[in-house]
Structure formats: C-alpha cells, structure tokens
Fold this protein.
Amino acid sequence: MNTAHRNIRPEIRQLDEACANRIAAGEVVERPASAVKELVENALDAGATRIDVAYGDGGKTLIRVRDDGHGMAPDDLPLALSRHATSKIDGTDLLNIRSFGFRGEALPSLGAVGRLVITSRTQGGDGASITVNGGRVGQVRPDAAQHGTLVELRDLFHATPARLKFMRSERAEAQAIADVVKRLAMAEPYVSFTLSDVSNDAPRQIFRADAAQGALFDALEDRMAAILGREFTDNAIRIDAERDGLHLTGLAGLPTYSRGAAVAQYLFVNGRPVRDKLLIGALRAAYMDFLSRDRHPVAALFITCAPDLVDVNVHPAKSEVRFRDPGLARGLVVSGLRHGLANAGHRASSTVAGAMLGAMQPQAAPPVPYQHAPYQMDRPSAQARAASYQLQAPFQMDDAPAAFWSGAEAISARHDAPDTAAPVPDDAPLGAARAQLHQNYIVAQTARGMVIVDQHAAHERLVYERLKRQRAENGVAAQALLIPEIVELPDADAAQLLALSDDLAALGLVIDAFGGGAIVVRETPALLGAVDARALIRDMLDELADLGKSQSLQARIDAVLSRMACHGSVRSGRAMRLEEMNALLREMEATPHSGQCNHGRPTYVELGLDDIEKLFGRK
C-alpha cells in the first residue's frame, strides 16, 4: 500500500481535549439512539423512579431526558463534563461494577459533538445549569430546577458534520430510540418510562410504561405485556433456574409462538441489555429440537450474578459481556429453557385458536333494503309452537312431527359411543374424543370447550420423544469405518475437537489424534448411515468458532430420529377407533412438548365454549 496518502508525520503530537472528546464520541455515540441509551442509563444509576424521554426529528435536532434521581450539586456540573470523571466507581476494582456507566465518557462525548445543556438539583439543594457547545464548556448558572436532572442535546453531530452523512432516515432513527428505551424499560419494571416525539411542535406520546407493582415475576409480566403485548405473556412460560452463582429468570415463548426472524429476543446481564452471541447461540440451541430453521423463539431472559463473574468492559458500547465461565452461562440458559419447556407439557400457543376463530368469522350479511313499515317479529302459529315444544324433549329424530319436516327425510345426528370405550376423567385437559374428521382430525370435548387434534402431527411428536428416551437410555450405536478417515486440521482446531472426544463418542463419533494437526475418524453414528466425515468435522468446527459449542452431530441424529418418527406414526387418512383416539389424547397429556410437532407447528387447537358461543351470536 502507498503510505504517501496517509498524512502521517514523523513526530508524535498530543491531541487537544476537544479532538480527544470527538474521537471518544465516535465510539460511544454512534447515532441518536446511542445518546439516549447513555442518558437513560445515567438516570437509572441516579436512582430515578420516573424517566421521561423526548426527541425531535428522529433525535437529530433534539434529545431530552428528564429524571427524578438524586441530581447533581452546582460544583459537580463542570466535573461531570470532564473525561473519566464519575461518581459510580472509585477506580480500585474494575471487576466490581454494579452500575450501567463507569467510564465517565458519555457527557463530555455528547458535549463534543452537539449542543448540550444540563440542569440539575439535589434534594434540598440549589438548582444550576451548564452548557457545552462543540466541546466548549460554559459557566455554571443558577436555575430554578426541579429535583433531579434534565439533559437537553440539540443538533447532534453539528460539530462533526461528516457523521451526519451516515445517519439514517428520521423514521429509522426514531425506531432505534424506541427500541433502546423499551429494552431499558424491560430491565427496570419498577421505574416509569415515557417516550414522546416532539417534532414540529406537535408532541405525541410514543410509549408509556407505568411502574409495576408486586413480586418480581408479576411486575415483569406486567412490563412485558406493556412492551411486547399481552399475547406474548399469555403464550410464555416463566423461567427460573440457578447454577453456581448464576441466576436465570425471565419469560420464554412457547415453540408454537415463534417469529420468522430473530427480532424479539431480549437478553440482559445484571440488568444491562446485551447482544451477546454466546447467549443468542444458547437460546437457539435450547429451541433447536422444537423449531424449524426458519423460525425463531421469542424470549426475554435475565442473568444475574456477582459482578466479578462477568466482565462488562469488553465493548465500547457495553453491548457485549464476557463471562468468567462461558460454558456455565451457556449451559444454564440451555438447561433452564429446556426444563421450562418440558414443564409446559402439551401446552400450545393460544394464537393458533385466535387465527382459527378469525377464519371462522361469518361473512357480513348483505344490506337489507330500507322498509317504511316498522319491524315486528312474526308470532309463531299454534302448530309451529307445538312442534317446537315436542322437539325440545328427548326423542329420536324420526319421531318428530311430519308436518314440521314438510316431507323431508328424517336425519339422525346421534352418536352412541361403544360400551367398550374406557371412561375419560372429567378434568382431562384434552377431553374425551367425540369424532374423527376426514380421517385426520380428532374432535374432543373438554370441560371448557373443544379440542381439534392433528392425529399425524401429534403421534409423530409422541414417537419422536419415545425414540429420544430410548437413545438416552441405550446410547447411540456406532459403526466402525472399514478404512478410517484422516482429516487434516490446524493444530488449534484439532486440539479443540480432541478435547471433546468423550462427548462425541457418546454420540457415536469416535476420533483420535493422528500426529500434527490431523485427526482420524474411526467410528460414526450408525443412525446416519454413510457419512462425509470430513464435512461433518468442518461443520462442527464452524459451530465451535461461532457459538462456543457444536450441536451439528446432535442435530443430525435428532433429524434422523424425527424422520423415523414421521414414518412410524399414525398416518393421515387412517380411521381410528374411539379408544385409540382417547389413548392418543392421554399420551399427549403425559408427554412433554406434545403441543407442537417436530417442526414447531401446533398439534392441536383449543376453542373455549365462550368463543364457540360468540361464533353463533350467543354472546
């Protein structure tokens, strides 16, 4: 490369403070949403119980954050605008960080790239304000301020106009601001938040979340319902697991309540929103057995631990963390989620029933021509009344009055169950089978309404779970290769795989060192048949590099078991006896994950009696 264009001088110079602040701002303040994040986190660190955020023109012309925290004294305002000045740590231990902020860079960085005004007052103290314009700090002035702090940032990046070219549309920046505020609101359910758009002098509230009350899980559900909608909390399970100092809590959506993209996955470590690939990979691995590749789980998960077990100072925006024991954190997420999903049993998403009800809504009746005569209900004749009274009594259809049927052929809709059918408990969640439709769907009556079951999808899941239990009990059979396959790898990759050799052997893959960076594959899982061992090893290494753990082999074995379950289950189009249908329902109730098939689709739909009555206009 040609160094003549790099503008490098041989002497070393000390950059002035304004330039240093603008460079720091390039790391801390990427866009308006970054500024909002820093200011709201400062408010939370100040002990605020109410935070009001407003922005104009997507945050480009105005960002305003007001809180009721403990505030700052007048003498502290100039110091707050100095780099690396903070009240949150004393500098003795960077692994004991209990606050959002700790570097002391946010306020000076914002003042370096915009026009900043800070107004603050402590409880019982005097109010004061200070201004910063492009890095130039003004004088502290008295101000009749409310208790707490008000920060106004105008004309973001006016001091670095080149950054304005990289800004997105006002709508995109506003959406990013809303996302930041909502994520922070999720982590603090006992704090009230408001978000308003004040563009064009027309204030409009975008988001509001009042402080929740009650126990943690109740408060968390209320806050999630306010942000993600009641539909999520109705179709989520509570997660509560602990292991070796790490505590996992939160809400995880049922597999049948999934999304087409990973846009509704919210992860927090000690209350800090993070986008950590280790945790995202663990979340994906936990649902691997329940969702197809094109579906993604919905979850809000919170990991809390002692500050010395996690390093939050590994990313400029503090959006990534590093656990002292990454395997422990990953294992906790995977096992906690799988245990929670197993406890959900046969439960399926209620949105499936909602979609079904929407499809069954009656079409609007054609408009009735206006008539001048007032409406009057016709009174039934004496003959019609006598026939209706007779029809309301127990009878066989062919006993009905001939005059009522007007010569039509008698019809019987009565269904007598065989005497040999086993009795069904009144409180059975999936009820008692009543009929089979199109030799594929089982209709059952429950205490609260009715259930429609896809017999093939349901039995496929039951067989799959049975095969997995057998595999866990008996292990995976391995087949020895006639000619062991040698795979050349970098030394580090070979060492990484050999460290997992015992785990791989339990899955039927036996490998050994072969000198240098080579490994030799001696046995492969018998279930997989002919295997391209080299490609399998490469896939596993790619997953190890990306997620820290490989699920490729496990996924391939599970895929084979899934295909075996599909071929070994009750086929569509097969007539089933009543006792067979009831036996299938009882096994579904006793089998974890039976609410969805192997591809994440629901195995049954439940309609409440109230919903059915609404369809017929009874309610």
Remarks:
- The two ends are 78 Å apart (CA to CA).
- Residues 112 and 611 are 59 Å apart (CA to CA).
- DSSP finds 20 helices and 23 strands in the chain.
